[in-house]
Write the structure tokens for this entry.
Amino acid sequence: MPIKQVLKKPEISCRLALWVVELGAYQISYLPRSAVKGQVMADYLAEMSGELEVINERTTLKPIMSETWDLFTDGASCAEGAGAGLVLSSPSGEDHTYALRFNFDVTNNEAEYEAILAGLNIARRIDITKLRAFTDSQLVANQFNGSFEAHDSSMQKYLQLLKDLAERFEYFELAQVPRIQNKKVDALSKLAAFAFSHFQKQA
């Protein structure tokens, strides 16, 4: 090591004499590195600084939860028809609102499944990869999470469709929320089921 040679053996070379004079103005002492373990991480960080900066930039600019969208769904079925209400919220807080009317007969539980399936399909179309879904349907949430078993063949088919769609996301979770926290999509689903029916009536 050059500095060690200058400080310990300045006579080994005439060229080092100048360095001895220059460094003599400073109180410099050479200490050998006593432990290698403490330096391993520092050496690694120095060597990998370029790659680590990229990794750090990604984790700083795009943390997992900041990329996660929220989906609120509700389905409604009645004699007038069936529909779904969806609110898809971006990480920045921007809401995308949908009221969908189904042109086929479904039960109320089937409408709940249709609502969340529609929401997941919309999310996939706009390239959302991380999604938290919320429904006030205890049946749908608990069947998906495994607390309830789907006995009916129709529910089994809907559940399998939901699981297949959920697997296409990098991150997905489904939770039940109280109906009072799902007011907006509840109103949208009823709007689609009830109020939109007159648009299809012939004069």
User: Anything to note?
Assistant: The longest strand covers residues 69-78. The chain has three domains: 1-32, 37-62, 65-200. The chain is about 45% helix and 20% strand.
